[in-house]
Amino acid sequence: MTRITIEDVAAEAGVSVTTVSHVFSGHRPVSDSTSERVRKIARDLGYRPNAIAKSLRVQRTFTAMIVLPDITNPFYPALARGVQDVLRTGGYQTLLCNTDAQDRDERAFLDEAMSRRVDGVVFMGFHVPVTDLEPLAESGIAVVNLGYGQTRAPIDIARFDDRAAAEEAVGYLLRSAPGNVGFIDGNASSPVAEARLQGFLDAYAAAGVAVPEGHVVSVDFTREGGRDGMRRLLAAGRPPRAVFCANDLIALGAIDIAHERGLAIPGDIAIMGCDDIDAADIVTPRLTTVRNSADEIGRTCGELLLSRMTGVYSGPGREVVVPYRIVVRDSA
């Protein structure tokens, strides 16, 4: 098949090659009518701009990398879609990388980002601190860290207020189960897990009561982890009357075990999750949870990254805290 060239598009559209180039590069203004006609003709002919040549001209690859801990968790694909939707408006393609929350894979993808010379990275790690992202930023790669940490490098931070969200959620549960709320936390090494644990402890402190022995367990951020955590809580000398879970997948696993044991939810035990994935509204009973909008934080990451990759912003690191809200359904 003969490759369609920029000259073919220009001839068909009745404009110069330079005009076609400006339509696709955006470097010079072109009237809306001309731009629309050129793009339609390009589509009809099957023309595709040469991305390699373009990257050599402008010293950019027009690619960004999204590094996430678990793409089987429905929260993260929705987040990645939010990032991608924003970056696509700037002509950028995305590479989605799954680390399975493993230290070696987090570091391997960062090395890959450097060797590929991607233009930007959105990174969420359980093990790699934000200071280890500094070499990327110092090399000219735009970086958004999805989480916590401080650095002098021009690295932007996007996060939820996990501590405040957990404190509010546990405070809500403590009102109906005074002094008897358990917590199934995620991987202890995760900054998110640490923040949500601190929020749990804050809620108990605010209530003026001590956390009962055996009421905090740490598991994987998975449904199976939730099953394991719920079994351990129910084996405690004084099982909890309500359970806060560090994410919705853990909560789904906790519900599985409650059903298995014949426990009524919320009659015998209330269960609350965090994130508000789609499954939260279709499980039985429907899950009360903390809504952390995956799409909103994904778009926030995309906007921060795009502004740096395009040169619109080149200042010091910024931090954006995306708001949360409690969503009350049937399980608590």
UniProtKB/TrEMBL annotation:
Domain of life the protein comes from: Bacteria
PROSITE patterns: HTH_LACI_2
A Pfam family of this chain: LacI
GO molecular function: DNA-binding transcription factor activity; transcription cis-regulatory region binding
Keywords, in A-Z order: DNA-binding, Repressor, Transcription, Transcription regulation
InterPro entries assigned: HTH_LacI (IPR000843), LacI/GalR-like_sensor (IPR046335), Lambda_DNA-bd_dom_sf (IPR010982), Peripla_BP_I (IPR028082)
Domain HTH lacI-type: 4-58
Keyword Ion transport (UniProt): no
The keyword Transcription regulation belongs to this UniProt entry's keyword annotation: yes
SMART domains for the chain: HTH_LACI
Name listed for the protein in its UniProt record: LacI family transcriptional regulator
Species, as recorded: Agromyces protaetiae
